[in-house]
């Protein structure tokens, strides 16, 4: 694992606990088992306050900013399927059925120091904004 990814994984684990990491085809994948979401989100018909989320970064990260994230395929907001979603462009190396949320970071400016500038922790935290949109 590259030093940058190790450092970023440590930041993610400090914030979210047992974040999983996997490498596949030159890309790094991350799985946050319990990402907090606001009231109204459901998996099927079951109300949830947290969901697993998965995201990937390309091999040329941090030069290439991350794009999109995955959540359970049957995730909905008060019974309505979320918009700006699709089937995943690639299946992650984690089990499950996934839904791809279109999401992009704003003002991506990664620096050599992972604690300064853009990083995966800030990226992951930004998912909250997408979930606040509901559908």
List the helices and strands and how they pair.
Elements: H1 3-16, E1 20-24, E2 27-36, E3 41-43, E4 46-47, E5 50-57, E6 67-72, E7 75-77, E8 85-86, E9 98-104, H2 120-125, H3 127-132
Antiparallel strand pairs: 1-2, 2-5, 3-4, 3-7, 6-9, 8-9
Key traits:
9 strands, alpha+beta, about 140 residues, three-stranded antiparallel β-sheet
How does this structure look, described?
The protein contains three helices and nine strands; from the N terminus they run H-E-E-E-E-E-E-E-E-E-H-H. The chain is of the alpha+beta class. The protein has one domain. The strands form three sheets. It has a three-stranded antiparallel β-sheet with strand order 1-2-5, covered by helices on one side. A hairpin with a 2-residue loop joins strand 1 and strand 2. The protein is globular and about 45 Å long. The termini are far apart. The mean pLDDT is 94.
């Amino acid at each position: 694992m590259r030093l940058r990814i190790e450092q970023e994984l440590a930041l993610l684990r400090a914030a979210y606990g047992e974040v999983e990491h996997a490498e596949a085809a030159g890309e790094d994948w991350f799985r946050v088992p319990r990402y907090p979401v606001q009231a109204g989100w459901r998996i099927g018909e079951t109300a949830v306050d947290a969901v697993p989320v998965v995201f990937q970064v390309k091999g040329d990260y941090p030069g290439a900013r991350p794009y999109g994230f995955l959540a359970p395929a049957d995730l909905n907001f008060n019974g309505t399927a979320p918009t700006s979603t699709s089937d995943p462009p690639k299946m992650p190396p984690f089990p499950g059925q996934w839904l791809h949320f279109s999401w992009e970071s704003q003002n991506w400016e990664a620096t050599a120091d992972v604690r300064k500038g853009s990083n995966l922790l800030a990226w992951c935290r930004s998912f909250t904004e997408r979930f606040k949109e509901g559908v």
